[in-house]
Every structure is written in C-alpha cells, then in structure tokens.
Amino acid sequence: MNGNSTSSDWDGRYFHVDQILDKPGPRTDPSFLAGDGVKDFLRNQCKILVIGAGGLGCEILANLALSGFKDIHVIDMDTIDISNLNRQFLFRQKDVGKPKATVAAEFIMNRVPGVQVTPYYGKIQDKDEDYYMQFNLVVCGLDSVEARRWINATLVNMVDPENPESLKPLIDGGTEGFKGQARVILPTVSSCYECSLDMLNKPTAFPICTIANTPRLPEHCIEWASVLEWPRVFGDKKLDTDDPEHIGWLFNHALKRAKEFKIEGVTWSLTQGVVKNIIPAIASTNAIIAASCCNEAFKIATSSAAYLNNYFMLIGTDGVYSYTFEHEQRKDCPVCGGESLDISIKKDWTVERLIEMLVEKQDIQIKKPSLSTPTKQIYLQAPPQLEQATRPNLEKKVSELVEDGGDITVTAASLPFNLSLRIKYI
Amino acid sequence: MLKIWSMKKNEDAAAKKKPKTSAAQIRVQKDLTELDLPSTMQTTFADPADLLNFELKITPDEGMYKGGAFSFSFNIGPNYPHEPPKVKCIPKIYHPNVDLEGNVCLNILREDWKPVLNLNSVMVGLQYLFLEPNADDPLNKEAAEELRRNRDQFLYNVKNSMRGGNIKNEHYDRVTNQ
C-alpha cells in the first residue's frame, strides 16, 4: 500500500501537499525519500501527539489533520468554558462543560475523513514513558511552564543511547497576547526547554509594600485581597482560583479597598485575570504560532525541507517583528546538561567507599559530593542537620539504597550543575 | 522521518540516560548543600527527608535587632527556580518591613526574583533586613514611621517588642535569643 490510497482518500485530495513530497528540492535532506516512501510514512505510519487542546491545540489539530497526518493523539486535562468559544473553534456552545480533548477529537474526525484522533482527558503526568514512546513526534500547545518543564524533562530522560527510536522531537508553541514563540527541541541534541528557563518573563509581581500601603492601580487592590487579606482572614485555607465564590470574595474586598483609595477599574473579570495571571489570548497570534509548529512537524516527519533551528519568536506588540536564532544548549542545564556516568561497583561497597571513589576520580574533579536518588537523600554534605541525618547512610551498602541500574544524582560546588551516576553491581 | 540519530553519534557524552530526579529537586539539593551561611543563620528541617519545607533562624550579632532570634518558614514549590520560595516570618515581630501576619517585604522574594538567584541570596537578603531596616518600603507603617521620625524611640520599641511587650496596643512575640 502506498500513501495515496486509503478508502477515504479521493483523487487529488493531496494534490498540493504532494507537490512537496513527490520530488526533492535543492535544500532537501539527502535522506528524503521522495514519492510513495515519504507519503506512506506520513499517512500510514507516523503517530503524533498533541499536548493541549486549547487556543493553540485546536489550531494545531486542524493543521495537522489537513496536512496529512492521520494518526493523531491529543491530551488535555480541561473542560470547555464559555470564554473559550471565541477562538477555540472546534467547540460550540453545546460543548461547554465537556472535556476539550474528546470534543476536539470528534470534531476533527467528523470534519476530515480518514483521520484518527485519539483523545485522552487527563494530565500528561498520568502517562508513563511507554505511552510517550509510541509517538514519532510531540507538539505542545500549553499555557503552563510547569507542564512544559515536565514533558521536556520526560522526553529528555527517555533518550536511550541504545535505541534511536527513543529520541522524540518536541515542537513547543506558546503565545502571550500578541507575542509568541515556536521552537524545535531535539532532546539531548539541542537546547531543551529547561536550558532557556531564565529567558521567561516572570509573572508580573508588585512590591508587597506598594500593595500594602500605596495602591495606585486596580491590580494593586486585587493583589492586596489575594496576597494579604485572604491568608489573614482564612489562614492556611487555599485560594481556589477556579471557585467563583473565592473569586467573588476577592472581588468584593478589592472593590472596597479601591473605593477607599479612590481607584477605579476593579471588575470581576480583572480580578479573575490578575489572580489566575490571565493574559488575553489573541486568536490570530495562536494561528501564526500553531501554523509554524505544524510546518515544523511536517518538515521533520517528511524531511522535505530544512527545519527550524531552533527558536522562532514573534513580537506583534509594536508592529511585526520576528527573529529566529539558535538557542544554545546549556552545559549546566539540570535536565539535559551535566555529565552522566555508568559506574560499576561491587555489591558490598558502602556509600562512603563510593564517595571516596568519586573524590579520587581524576577526570571529574569533584569535591564534597552530595548524593541522592529520585526519591530519597543518600548523603548531603550540608546544612549540618541534613548532614547528620544522612550520615548513618555512609556505612550502609550502596546496594541497600539503590537498585541495580538505578540512578544517583550528585551535586557539588565544583560541578557546574550535577552529575548522574548509573549504578551497576558486579 | 528526519534522521536525528545521525546527529547524535558525535555527542556521546550527552547521550547517556539521565535520572528522573526533577530539575527543581536537583536545584534545591544544590542550593542547600552549597549554602554558605554565617554563624548567625541556621536551618532546621522538620522532616530531614523533605528538602522543600524548612525553617531558617536568624540571630543578628549586630544592629538594632541584636539579641533576637527570628525564625522564617521556607516553602519551595515544584516550579522553583522559575518561581521564588515562599517565605514567612513565624513570630509576630516589630519591624518596618515585616507585617503582623509575617509577610516580608524583600524585593527578591517577589518583583525582583530571578532564577539565577538562590536560597543563599534570599537568606542573606533576610539577614540584611535586620541589619538595615528600611523605612521606605514599609509593611508595618507604624514601625516605619517611628524609625523615620525618632530613631531612639524606634530602637526602644524594638527592644521592648523583642522581650514580648506591647507597642500601641499590639502585642509582639518574645524573640530574645536564649
């Protein structure tokens, strides 16, 4: 079977896309298999995962389905809110309250014949490496730093030197009002999400003394209500930004304070916007960024053209400005940087013996290492209380604390970031 | 599909699998084990296995707050160091930059936090508040006003509050260092 003939593919369906896939161009990768080979891969073999079915996700799903991807999976943990309908065009009024992933998948399958979209309504953290291993590519349209850090670290950790299939390109899109970015992350090969964490804008925070004493903006009053007044009145009770009663309480208190200081502009929606840190989403920014992400997904899946290396940013706030550059991998990145060593030790080695060995090792120059596993501390050099608490472990056998093939994270002042050890027993 | 693997061959150092320790966790381990604290600061962990929640005790050896012991709670979230640690002053103290609920006005805890800063910078910043209380960024307005207007009266109030006294009908916790 070649890429042209499944039951739902009518004559000429892919006429335009095939202009690109049927013959190589001057800049196509030498590995490009023009013709049936690449079409078969794209349409019958390639499995792609879309994370997020919101503003970017809807656009991404539509673009992928229309450019010929046929086995698409989508994860989203949210349900549809009425405020989504202006830009998340796979959803209708009747869908409000239903899971985004499910509704989006059904819509695409109805609209684009022959595409299989498999939804998962839940968190990305529910899925394990075996799940992510089944995909060729991952495209993210997320709004949270935390989720991006998680999927990035998971894909980097999955890379197994023995298995080329374990390297999954990650295409990450993000928008904030008129600004956006699209990037291609080849885990362990190019700069990862964590490498560029310090480039992120931090959420707007106002000095706490301004909030407490000299409010001038409606936002100051709202922050006063959420940061100072809420904990003062309710103690440890957690503020739930999705609970209308909680937002209502903040709104009323912020409004009262605003009146007191003669400040105008405290509204319900601004209150919600400030506490949830909402930046108004612009449908067309999402369209541009999603299109860029899907172009990259198409080029990487088919090798038909050079792909983005590796960071595209769009700034639409002052006219139109865009810039593409290569973000460099950070040597001291806690996710993809640092050194990694396979170490074989005897089963009866104590932790102390292992530390001595690390200190003596000429090639890594490590002084005063602190050791931990993903779930517990083994030995920490400081502060004094933790050193004391972990000191009894020095006499224990490493094999009591770490299983065969297990990992130890080593940090030390002399290391730029960290070193990971994979322990094998002999 | 693009042959990424061929790009990988020459980069064997980075090719090794890495453990599933979260970036935040590694960063906290690094921050804590490399703390360089003077004898006036001490950390206490209620649960030594939990590095994300602990207390810091500051016992200034100079300045107006000399003789006191001030404990702060630290809570580090999963998004550290993208987000700063949450820090609160545990006892109720008389200080221009600390309010009666324990909120602290320190720029690097909010508007000026950056991921390149670490726990050591926060702790040093906290200690500095006791050496140089700052009347320009008040959280306790009465205290700030007093510091600006009458330094001697402010100093007297500080000493009185540290012994567990009342100032302007407000009771403060006893924080003298035993």
From TrEMBL, chain A:
<feature type="active site" description="Glycyl thioester intermediate">
    <location>
        <position position="209"/>
    </location>
</feature>
<comment type="pathway">
    <text>Protein modification; protein neddylation.</text>
</comment>
<keyword id="KW-0067">ATP-binding</keyword>
<dbReference type="GO" id="GO:0005524">
    <property type="term" value="F:ATP binding"/>
</dbReference>
<dbReference type="InterPro" id="IPR014929">
    <property type="entry name" value="E2-binding"/>
</dbReference>
<protein>
    <recommendedName>
        <fullName>NEDD8-activating enzyme E1 catalytic subunit</fullName>
        <ecNumber>6.2.1.64</ecNumber>
    </recommendedName>
</protein>
<dbReference type="InterPro" id="IPR045886">
    <property type="entry name" value="ThiF/MoeB/HesA"/>
</dbReference>
<dbReference type="InterPro" id="IPR000594">
    <property type="entry name" value="ThiF_NAD_FAD-bd"/>
</dbReference>
<dbReference type="GO" id="GO:0045116">
    <property type="term" value="P:protein neddylation"/>
</dbReference>
<dbReference type="InterPro" id="IPR033127">
    <property type="entry name" value="UBQ-activ_enz_E1_Cys_AS"/>
</dbReference>
<dbReference type="InterPro" id="IPR035985">
    <property type="entry name" value="Ubiquitin-activating_enz"/>
</dbReference>
<keyword id="KW-0833">Ubl conjugation pathway</keyword>
<keyword id="KW-0436">Ligase</keyword>
<comment type="function">
    <text>Catalytic subunit of the dimeric E1 enzyme, which activates NEDD8.</text>
</comment>
<feature type="domain" description="E2 binding">
    <location>
        <begin position="343"/>
        <end position="426"/>
    </location>
</feature>
<dbReference type="Pfam" id="PF08825">
    <property type="entry name" value="E2_bind"/>
</dbReference>
<dbReference type="GO" id="GO:0005634">
    <property type="term" value="C:nucleus"/>
</dbReference>
<dbReference type="InterPro" id="IPR023318">
    <property type="entry name" value="Ub_act_enz_dom_a_sf"/>
</dbReference>
<dbReference type="InterPro" id="IPR030468">
    <property type="entry name" value="Uba3_N"/>
</dbReference>
<dbReference type="GO" id="GO:0019781">
    <property type="term" value="F:NEDD8 activating enzyme activity"/>
</dbReference>
<comment type="similarity">
    <text>Belongs to the ubiquitin-activating E1 family. UBA3 subfamily.</text>
</comment>
<dbReference type="GO" id="GO:0005737">
    <property type="term" value="C:cytoplasm"/>
</dbReference>
UniProtKB/TrEMBL annotation, chain B:
<protein>
    <recommendedName>
        <fullName>NEDD8-conjugating enzyme UBC12</fullName>
        <ecNumber>2.3.2.34</ecNumber>
    </recommendedName>
</protein>
<feature type="domain" description="UBC core">
    <location>
        <begin position="23"/>
        <end position="167"/>
    </location>
</feature>
<feature type="active site" description="Glycyl thioester intermediate">
    <location>
        <position position="105"/>
    </location>
</feature>
<dbReference type="InterPro" id="IPR016135">
    <property type="entry name" value="UBQ-conjugating_enzyme/RWD"/>
</dbReference>
<keyword id="KW-0547">Nucleotide-binding</keyword>
<dbReference type="InterPro" id="IPR000608">
    <property type="entry name" value="UBC"/>
</dbReference>
<dbReference type="InterPro" id="IPR023313">
    <property type="entry name" value="UBQ-conjugating_AS"/>
</dbReference>
<comment type="similarity">
    <text>Belongs to the ubiquitin-conjugating enzyme family.</text>
</comment>
<dbReference type="Pfam" id="PF00179">
    <property type="entry name" value="UQ_con"/>
</dbReference>
<keyword id="KW-0067">ATP-binding</keyword>
<keyword id="KW-0833">Ubl conjugation pathway</keyword>
<comment type="pathway">
    <text>Protein modification; protein neddylation.</text>
</comment>
<dbReference type="GO" id="GO:0061654">
    <property type="term" value="F:NEDD8 conjugating enzyme activity"/>
</dbReference>
<keyword id="KW-0808">Transferase</keyword>
<dbReference type="GO" id="GO:0005524">
    <property type="term" value="F:ATP binding"/>
</dbReference>
<dbReference type="InterPro" id="IPR050113">
    <property type="entry name" value="Ub_conjugating_enzyme"/>
</dbReference>
